[in-house]
């Protein structure tokens, strides 16, 4: 089947996987199942996936560690499954690169709905891109002496150097570049960037801003384009 969505489900309990797999396949999606973190990383090295469902409590590697490892190479949208409705689990998962989380027990229909919502948000992020550019240069939507943004390939250049950004880092920086000198509160940034901002905490924004600053300093150590407005939020200088 052409353009069939590929889903990787990483969960060691077959009683959870089987009904979930049935619901996903009813949507016309192809499902691969890994019951350990090691197996999941092996599958990711062999083929591409459109979505990852990842249990936190795996028998070999903690799901958070699996997420950290895969985020070094892949930006595949990811949803965590957690056995507890624990704020710490939610915060850690979102900070290391998850797009969403769902606490057990859950309904398969809820997982399907969350996957579709994340895909819709991702499509909206690239909807303004120019059609099928022949090169990154012709794709550039926003360009200045400092920044060049390529929405279709989800890339940003800083002083001519392509930044290796996570999806949320890209979204944050792209929004700030679109509105230089405008101060955004943490809540405003969460509302603009995250699929489910009500599940996030303000420190999640701070963590991603910190990561962005580190990557920008690797290009220009003496420059600080992202400004902190204490008690308010963040802005990007022109």
UniProtKB/TrEMBL annotation:
Database matches in PROSITE patterns: OMPR_PHOB, RESPONSE_REGULATORY
Q: Which residues carry this modification: 4-aspartylphosphate?
A: 55
Asked if the Swiss-Prot or TrEMBL record annotates the protein with the keyword Phosphoprotein, the reply is yes
Q: Which domain of life is it from?
A: Bacteria
DNA-binding region as annotated in the record: 139-238
- Keywords, sorted A to Z: DNA-binding, Phosphoprotein
Q: What Pfam families does UniProt report for this protein, alphabetically? A: Response_reg, Trans_reg_C
What region holds the Response regulatory domain?
6-119
OmpR/PhoB-type domain ranges (all copies): 139-238
Q: What is this protein called?
A: Two-component system response regulator CreB
Which organism is the protein's source?
Answer: Acinetobacter corruptisaponis
């Amino acid at each position: 089947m052409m353009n069939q969505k590929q889903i990787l489900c990483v969960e060691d309990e077959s009683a959870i996987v089987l009904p979930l797999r049935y619901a996903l396949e009813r949507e016309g999606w192809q499902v691969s199942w890994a019951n350990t973190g090691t197996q999941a990383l092996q599958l990711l090295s062999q083929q591409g996936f459109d979505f990852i469902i990842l249990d936190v409590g795996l028998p070999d590697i903690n799901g958070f560690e699996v997420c950290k490892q895969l985020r070094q190479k892949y930006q595949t949208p990811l949803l965590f499954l957690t056995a507890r409705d624990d704020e710490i689990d939610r915060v850690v998962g979102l900070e290391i690169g998850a797009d969403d989380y769902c606490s057990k027990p859950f309904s398969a229909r809820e997982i399907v709905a969350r996957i579709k919502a994340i895909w819709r948000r991702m499509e909206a992020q690239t909807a303004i891109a120019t059609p099928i550019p022949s090169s990154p240069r012709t794709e550039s939507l926003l360009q200045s002496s400092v920044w060049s943004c390529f929405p279709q390939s989800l890339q940003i250049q800083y002083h001519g150097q392509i930044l290796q950004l996570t999806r949320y880092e890209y979204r944050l920086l792209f929004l700030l570049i679109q509105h230089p000198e405008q101060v955004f509160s943490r809540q405003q940034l969460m509302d603009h960037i995250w699929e489910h901002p009500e599940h996030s905490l303000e420190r999640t924004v701070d963590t991603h801003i910190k990561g962005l600053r580190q990557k920008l300093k690797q290009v220009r150590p003496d420059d600080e384009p992202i400004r902190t407005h204490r008690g308010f939020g963040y802005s990007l200088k022109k």
